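Hey,
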Amino acid sequence: MRLHRPKLDLRTLITLLAIASIVITLASSLYATWQVQREVLITNTLESNRVYATKLASTTEMFFELARSQLAYSAKTLSQDMQNDALMESEVARLREQTSSFNSTVVVDANGWVRAISPDSLMLKGIHLTTDATRQALTERKPLISQPSISVAHNLMVFVSYPIRAADGTYLGFVGGTIYLKKKSILNELLGEQFYRDGSSLYVVDSENRVLYHENNALIGQKIALPIGNGVKQKSGYQLVKDNNGATMLASYATVATPGWMIVAMKPAKATLTPLSSLMLKVLQRAIPFALLTLVFAWCVARLIARPLGQLARNASQMDAPGVSTEIGVIQSWYYEAAEIKRAMLTGIGLLQDKIGRLKFEVQTDPMTALLNRRGLNAVLEYFLATRQSFSVLALDIDHFKRVNDSWGHDVGDSVIKNVAQQLSKSSRQTDVVCRNGGEEFLIILPGADREMAAVIAERVRKKIEQLEIIPVGHITLSIGVALWEADDTPLERIFKQADDALYAAKHAGRNRVVVSHQLEESAQEIYRQLG
């Protein structure tokens, strides 16, 4: 027996479509929202840090401009009398104490000897300086900001100097101030205003990537490899970079033009995106109730849409049943497609009944029995083949008919055939097709009947004939074979062959019985199992 896989109904399909649409829409919306919010957070953080780095760079630049102007004023004052020790002592003290720009201030003559220094605790007065910053200032004889170096007092420092020239332009030495990098200084106060708790870092590096400022004092003075692309020291901007551990960092930078320094603010992308997870969770929590309401609404609408189509589908499988037109007529088809299907079904039922009726009475018939002949049967089969309507076939044969002809003659034999034909017509439904297949053989086509129903009808016909008394023959019997065509690609010839095989099986089994084709298959399989 052929197994049919259960099919989904329209209501289930619409509901599944609604669920899929809601899930896909919600997922797409959440993903799009996550992407947009992620981009906004990253961009805003980068821009905010860039502005912060630019502000620090601008403030640092202003500090150096102010420090230069202060040193320039002192240089002008000292140029009037470089031999006045009291003047030099007074000026370095004023520079250090009045502005707090420098950790120490010094006046050095053209030969590198310290003429005055503040604070006095450094005890460097009268010392000949040979540091890199001193040599650079004495050699270049112009305003300078040195590279980080170790001072005579063993402090890591940046040295800002300004040349002292006499009125005639003669180089007399320089005045300068130191900014300590690892101790409290104006630079630490300028750059250390923001305290980071989320893994962020602020770097200040010179042109050789030597750290001038960082929250971790151990890094100050060391050269590091910043993950910033080449060629960025001439502008401000931001980049997404990877740290040494492969984590994504948001790096914003700005340059301090005068000393050629770079200020880099770095923040982990993970810390920036942490609020996004809670935001998306809140969005999801607020979206789920609306999604559920939408799903309930979709289910109700699907039920309303599917109900008339389901009723029509159930009646479509029983188009030959009595009163089916009335049942279809009361179905509430409230939208266009259902109404058109309902109208087509009612029209089809009328056409089907009319077509079958006309096929029974208008096509060529057997002159003896007034039943359809083979030509009429072929027309019926063409109709069923075109409409793809399943049907069962009853192949019937009068048992021992040759004995009737031999015993009472052909006239009595013809009378028997006519009586059997009349009884078959009376026992069949209005939509059934009864055909004389030749001689004492008949065929009955049962539209829409499955094997079980066909077997019941065949048994009823067999009993009617068995009870029929025909004078002078008396009682006769029929052998009947049953087969089913399920509106698939199976050739019609094969179905009639199955019915014939079942008929012959009934003959061989003792006659006056009904055999269904699938019973033959099961018997054959049982024999194979026993032999196997």
